[in-house]
Amino acid sequence: MTDVTRIWLETSHHPAFRCAGWAFVRQGVDGLSGAAGGARHVTPERAVLGGLAEALKDLPPGAAVEVRTGNRQIAALPGRIAGFAAGEDPPTEDLDLWAQLSTALKTARIVTAPPNAFAAAWAELARDKAKATGPFRSAIPKPNLVKAGV
Fold it and tell me: What is the pLDDT of residues 130-149, one digit of tens each?
């Protein structure tokens, strides 16, 4: 039996200020962890791609991964990647992130779930911090993660 690493991921984009934040909580064989981050001057798509890439980074090789999210853009990514392989027009922007995710999503499954309030709140906080101070990535403190309810 394989242990599944579960990731709860949410993003938050502010269209007027073009800033975005993301946050994830990861529960797996290595315990409970999480991070939040954000950037200025990004599109909603880049925020989604960047958040998912960060959530899938540093996983053990061959790990079974299940990403739970309430974000429809994240849930649609595997279908979009399959469409590119089937001949649909590929993206012209954010090619670095698309390449990362095309590989990472071969072993990950994305599940549409109700938004995780904990991750959503951290994503909004990250969005506001990115708006004020610029790009960043920071671990979510362990005492806060205990309250995540996962």
Answer: 999 999 999 999 999 988 87
Angle, CA of 106, 108 and 112, to the nearest 5°: 125
How far does CA 15 lie from the centroid of its chain? 18
CATH numbers and ranges of domains, the chain: 4-148 (3.30.420.10)
pTM more than 0.85: yes
Per-residue pLDDT tens digits for 61-77: 778 999 999 999 999 99
Strand-pairing partners, residue 40, are: 19
Helices (DSSP H) in the chain: which residue ranges?
Answer: 44-56, 72-85, 95-104, 117-133, 142-145
